[in-house]
Amino acid sequence: MSVAFVFPGQGSQSVGMMQAYADLPLIRSTFEEAAEVLHQDLWALVSDGPESALAQTVNTQPLMLTAGVAVYRTWMQQGGAEPAAVAGHSLGEYSALVAARVLSFPDALRLTRLRARAMQEAVPEGEGAMAAILGLEDDQVRAACEESANTSIVEPANFNAPGQVVIAGHRAAVERAILVAKSKGAKRAVLLPMSVPSHCSLMHPAAIQLRAALEQITVQTPAMPVVHNATVSVATTPPAIRSALVQQLHQPVRWVECVQALVHQGVEAIIECGPGKVLAPLTKRIDSSVQGLTLNSADAIHSALSATQQGADHA
To answer: What is the pLDDT of residues 128-179, one digit of tens each?
Structure first.
């Protein structure tokens, strides 16, 4: 069975989320490797909290990267099939690039921490916001943002599934867009508990910092196709990969198109690699013809291994 792997980003984190993998030695050793690079015990943070520290962007980004890489390594160690292609949602793109052997794990850890700090510094606390808009067409969401911007910024940030778009920008403009979206018939339009307005024009200062950092990092040719969020393309050269990562910071995550691109490559299952269960339900909403699996526990890894091996046997 041909599989693609997708890696979640911020929003999937929770205290205790790694306990479902506690008996897998490679999970712990990957966290120990991260601790040596970052000089921070991420395992203690994810095991004991507090939730407020876990939610800080500078902690969440390297933590979710580590979780995704740890689960991917475990999958491969247990004889799982190497994916035909990979993608990651927002921050998850960095986990995908480690899986594709484009970035080393230590370099990806340093990059995600720098990226997180740059994002926090780009917009003062309280001035930015994000909101989820459910039940409108993409063009209706774009129109709501245009009507609400005035001299401020509010833009679509994540096209997650049909009828599910996240917007980002200046807080007051986001709040105006929520009201406009409701007037256009949105089933739900709510602020998200995130102060950093990711994937919009307000992240240009952070993108400049990230570009400079990427120039100092070794970027290898991908060992497998990586579908990038901002371009929905497969970059094959280090300059193109660097460019895609810079664009991703201030342009929307085109997740619907990314999943469609993976399906177009002929994969039969898209496997969400990491704790939580955020991307698998989106996969089913985007294309019900492809199987969506999760690896959010040791048992789930075992089940997915069995499912993909049986699929290979019957192929």
So the answer is: 999 999 999 999 999 999 999 999 999 999 999 999 999 999 999 999 999 9
The region that residue 164 occupies, defined by phi over 0 for left and psi between -120 and 50 for alpha, beta otherwise, is beta
Helix axes 298-314, 57-77, angle to 10 degrees: 50
Alpha carbons 78 and 58: distance in angstroms, whole number: 31
Give the pair of three-digit tokens for residue 58.
């500078």
Q: Of 89, 95, 148, 199, which is the active-site residue?
A: 199
Check if 228 is active-site: no
> Taking a C-beta distance cutoff of 8 angstroms, is the pair 156, 145 a contact?
yes
Give 3-state DSSP helix, strand, coil % of the chain, rounded to 5: 50, 15, 35
Question: Does the annotation count 90 as an active-site position?
Answer: yes
Burial of 36 (C-beta count, 10 Å sphere; 0-12/13-18/19+): exposed
Determine if residue 199 is left, alpha or beta; phi over 0 gives left, psi from -120 to 50 gives alpha, anything else beta: left
Name the 3-class secondary structure at 205.
helix
- Peptide bond between residue 50 and the one before it cis (omega within 30 degrees of 0): yes
Beta bridge partners of 132: 166, 190
Query: CA 280 to CA 268: how far, in whole Å?
Result: 13
Mean pLDDT of 272-294: 95
Q: What is the largest CA-CA distance in the chain?
A: 59
**pLDDT computed for residue 314 by the predictor:** 47
Q: What angle do CA 45, 131, 17 make, to 5 degrees?
A: 25
Select which of 12, 90, 198, 297 is catalytic: 90
The pTM of the full predicted model, rounded to 2 decimals, is: 0.95
AA letter at 138: D
With H, G, I as helix, E, B as strand and everything else as coil, classify residue 306.
helix
Write out the E strands in 171-288.
188-191, 269-272
pLDDT digits (tens, 9 = 90+) for 65-98: 999 999 999 999 999 999 999 999 999 999 999 9
